[in-house]
């Protein structure tokens, strides 16, 4: 299992934001994306997740090996913490949610309605979802928003455990997660030179 | 897919799920008709099939924007799109969940409300049959409309405008089956046409909905 990205170009709203981006990520490795706001980190992650098409280049990963976590956690407030996790687990044909509950310290909260959780607790639930997908490549968009330092440590440990099992992670973050083996990729040098791509305007769609 | 269906059903019956919204609207509309057109039994019996069908259709329309908008707002739709189920399957399950939570209660309530409108005894069977055959098309077409307008703030009005013309054939043939049944005429041709619309919609529209959703998620 390897993620190879070659000469990738991505666009947002018909405007190219990144181009010529290449990197290779092997099993057990993590990549941290850095760059100022609006530099295309989120767009890059969405392209890798298969949620939007790239405008150039190639990605060597099948959509079935990707677990994506965006700014929104996809949590239903009317369902309990355990019900939320069970749903995502069953959707990905997994059974066990106890490991995910324990990794993010949600054991005591599992019967609470997700709507009654604090922002940080919701975030922890959203990240615990990654563990029940059983997928090797995690794409994380600002995962540490509203987490306290303790939860950030839990999250760092969960990523380390995931990498140890041969998983991969691409993380857009500005916080030091304490990952020893992670490489850092600054996307600023890959900013698109030509703002508009082809004659065909994607934004029109 | 069963997991998704169970989740949607559970969400619909929990607090704030909007389970009773369509049903309550249907009850109110039909209960008010005798007050507005007068208690004359012969007149009510004549318009009963049409009123029941129109009420059911508008009640369906009322809950359409919840099919995908809620999942869009909390980010679940992005996550569902990366799940192992193809998007075609997801929109089909969503339409099925909408049918079970919205249309099925209407089908069950319709004969009870038929009494209020003095529907002739022979009309009940065909009223239920026509609703059972026709309402799946309403849910599937509605899901297509919801996929078109997902991500648009306050897209409910646009959704209604887009979907209403597509509902017209279903209404024409559905109400016609119910009317002919009530008057003791042959219903076969119209019932078959209604069934054809439903089958066609269920076979083709999930692909259109999924394609539209893929564009809207970009």
From TrEMBL, chain A:
<keyword id="KW-0472">Membrane</keyword>
<dbReference type="Pfam" id="PF00005">
    <property type="entry name" value="ABC_tran"/>
</dbReference>
<dbReference type="GO" id="GO:0016887">
    <property type="term" value="F:ATP hydrolysis activity"/>
</dbReference>
<keyword id="KW-1278">Translocase</keyword>
<keyword id="KW-0813">Transport</keyword>
<dbReference type="InterPro" id="IPR017871">
    <property type="entry name" value="ABC_transporter-like_CS"/>
</dbReference>
<keyword id="KW-0201">Cytochrome c-type biogenesis</keyword>
<dbReference type="InterPro" id="IPR027417">
    <property type="entry name" value="P-loop_NTPase"/>
</dbReference>
<keyword id="KW-0547">Nucleotide-binding</keyword>
<dbReference type="GO" id="GO:0005524">
    <property type="term" value="F:ATP binding"/>
</dbReference>
<dbReference type="GO" id="GO:0022857">
    <property type="term" value="F:transmembrane transporter activity"/>
</dbReference>
<dbReference type="InterPro" id="IPR003439">
    <property type="entry name" value="ABC_transporter-like_ATP-bd"/>
</dbReference>
<dbReference type="GO" id="GO:0017004">
    <property type="term" value="P:cytochrome complex assembly"/>
</dbReference>
<keyword id="KW-0067">ATP-binding</keyword>
<feature type="domain" description="ABC transporter">
    <location>
        <begin position="3"/>
        <end position="205"/>
    </location>
</feature>
<dbReference type="InterPro" id="IPR003593">
    <property type="entry name" value="AAA+_ATPase"/>
</dbReference>
<protein>
    <submittedName>
        <fullName>Heme ABC exporter ATP-binding protein CcmA</fullName>
    </submittedName>
</protein>
<dbReference type="InterPro" id="IPR005895">
    <property type="entry name" value="ABC_transptr_haem_export_CcmA"/>
</dbReference>
Automatic annotation (TrEMBL), chain B:
<dbReference type="GO" id="GO:0015232">
    <property type="term" value="F:heme transmembrane transporter activity"/>
</dbReference>
<keyword id="KW-0472">Membrane</keyword>
<comment type="similarity">
    <text>Belongs to the CcmB/CycW/HelB family.</text>
</comment>
<feature type="transmembrane region" description="Helical">
    <location>
        <begin position="123"/>
        <end position="150"/>
    </location>
</feature>
<dbReference type="GO" id="GO:1903607">
    <property type="term" value="P:cytochrome c biosynthetic process"/>
</dbReference>
<keyword id="KW-0997">Cell inner membrane</keyword>
<dbReference type="InterPro" id="IPR003544">
    <property type="entry name" value="Cyt_c_biogenesis_CcmB"/>
</dbReference>
<keyword id="KW-0812">Transmembrane</keyword>
<keyword id="KW-0201">Cytochrome c-type biogenesis</keyword>
<feature type="transmembrane region" description="Helical">
    <location>
        <begin position="96"/>
        <end position="117"/>
    </location>
</feature>
<dbReference type="InterPro" id="IPR026031">
    <property type="entry name" value="Cyt_c_CcmB_bac"/>
</dbReference>
<keyword id="KW-1133">Transmembrane helix</keyword>
<dbReference type="Pfam" id="PF03379">
    <property type="entry name" value="CcmB"/>
</dbReference>
<feature type="transmembrane region" description="Helical">
    <location>
        <begin position="157"/>
        <end position="175"/>
    </location>
</feature>
<feature type="transmembrane region" description="Helical">
    <location>
        <begin position="12"/>
        <end position="37"/>
    </location>
</feature>
<feature type="transmembrane region" description="Helical">
    <location>
        <begin position="43"/>
        <end position="64"/>
    </location>
</feature>
<protein>
    <recommendedName>
        <fullName>Heme exporter protein B</fullName>
    </recommendedName>
</protein>
<comment type="function">
    <text>Required for the export of heme to the periplasm for the biogenesis of c-type cytochromes.</text>
</comment>
<keyword id="KW-1003">Cell membrane</keyword>
<dbReference type="GO" id="GO:0017004">
    <property type="term" value="P:cytochrome complex assembly"/>
</dbReference>
<feature type="transmembrane region" description="Helical">
    <location>
        <begin position="187"/>
        <end position="213"/>
    </location>
</feature>
<keyword id="KW-0813">Transport</keyword>
């Amino acid at each position: 299992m390897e993620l190879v990205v070659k000469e990738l170009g991505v666009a947002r709203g018909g405007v190219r934001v990144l181009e010529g981006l290449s990197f290779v990520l092997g099993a057990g490795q993590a990549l941290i994306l850095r760059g100022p706001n609006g530099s295309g980190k989120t767009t890059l992650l969405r392209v890798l997740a298969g949620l939007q098409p790239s405008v150039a280049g190639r990605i060597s990963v099948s959509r079935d090996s990707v677990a994506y976590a965006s700014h929104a956690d996809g949590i239903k407030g009317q369902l309990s913490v355990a019900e939320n996790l069970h749903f995502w687990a069953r959707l990905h044909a997994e059974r066990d949610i106890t490991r995910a509950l324990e990794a993010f310290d949600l054991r005591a909260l599992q019967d609470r309605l997700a709507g009654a959780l604090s922002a940080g607790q919701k975030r922890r639930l959203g990240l615990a979802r990654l563990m029940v997908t059983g997928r090797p490549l995690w794409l994380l968009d600002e995962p540490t928003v509203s987490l306290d330092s303790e939860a950030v440590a839990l999250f760092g440990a969960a990523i380390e455990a995931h990498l140890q099992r041969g998983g991969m992670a691409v993380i857009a973050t500005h916080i030091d997660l304490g990952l020893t083996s992670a490489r850092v990729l600054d996307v600023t040098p890959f900013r698109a030179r030509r703002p508009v791509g082809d004659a065909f305007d994607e934004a029109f769609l | 897919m069963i997991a998704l269906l169970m989740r949607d059903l559970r969400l619909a019956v929990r607090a704030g799920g909007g389970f009773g919204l369509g049903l309550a609207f249907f009850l109110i509309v039909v209960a008010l008709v005798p007050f507005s057109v007068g208690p004359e039994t012969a007149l009510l019996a004549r318009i009963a099939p049409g009123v029941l069908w129109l009420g059911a259709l508008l009640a369906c329309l009322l809950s359409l924007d919840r099919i995908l908008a809620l999942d869009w707002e909390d980010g679940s739709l992005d996550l569902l799109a990366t799940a192992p189920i193809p998007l075609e399957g997801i929109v089909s399950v969503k339409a099925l969940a909408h049918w079970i939570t919205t249309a099925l209660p209407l089908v069950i309530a319709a004969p009870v409300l038929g009494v209020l409108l003095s529907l002739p005894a022979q009309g009940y069977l065909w009223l239920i049959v026509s609703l059972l055959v026709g309402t799946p098309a309403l849910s599937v077409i509605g899901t297509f409309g919801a996929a078109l307008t997902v991500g648009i703030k306050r897209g409910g009005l646009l959704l209604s405008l887009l979907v209403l013309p597509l509902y017209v054939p279903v209404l024409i043939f559905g109400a016609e089956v119910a009317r002919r049944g009530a008057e003791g005429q042959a219903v076969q041709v119209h019932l078959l046409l209604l069934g054809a619309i439903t089958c066609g919609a269920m076979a083709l529209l999930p692909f259109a909905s999924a394609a539209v959703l893929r564009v809207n998620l970009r």
